[in-house]
# Entry
Amino acid sequence: MRSPQRRSPSSRSGSTTGEGARRNSSRPSIAIIDEARDSDIEVIVHQQTAQDMPDLLEAGVAGFLHGRLGPTLDDQLAAQIRDSGAFLVPNLGLGELRRERVGADPFLQEATPPAVAARLRESFDALGVGAGASRAAAAASQRERELSDAFSRLVDAGVDIVLGTDAGAVPDHFFGYTGHRELEIFVRLGMTPMQAIIAATSRPAERLGLADTGTLAPGQMADFVILDTNPLEDIRNTQSISRVFLRGREVDRTRLRRLWTGQD
# Structure
């Protein structure tokens, strides 16, 4: 951090705290933020607990990856995030699926290689059976209430919420599927469908400084999907994908399926 090359502003992600960590565990990240500010570098923190967020916001963090949503995220903290201009990536798409049975979802088969889907069915669906199933259901109900309360505070406060992937966090993290499911969760927790779509498209591009993507407009990269049904009527309609275009060229989805299944 002492001798960075002077280029255009960039972003860095630093891990801060684990569950149950002490509050002063944010000190290394604050030192990084202080150094980065002098070099015109934004710092984005991979957050594991909400208790360090006020100090990190005071230091000038640009955003939180895996910002923890729960009872400790109160109205005061939501307002502080908004006023600082920081954004927050909830990363709910994978974690919340651990509380659901996903094996019967046809969209999982559409978006995930068969070997990965089989492992996910075995690991996720097993949580819904056996002696611990009732305890898991009770915990999921409590978690849903906590998520709803915290998420509503963020939305009402006007915090920039961004859909992200938590890439590399766990094996078999199936990004496409969890992204669509997270849109569902965003709406279930209080966003309108349009707010959720913005959180997944134009807002991430804006917050990452990507001027040529995120919206459909002249001069932008032609990355888009064509849907059979309207997601503004039901956010789950983002899964009714008819065609996919990347850099203006249609993606051969049939070919991809054949590769996934070993037919090519």
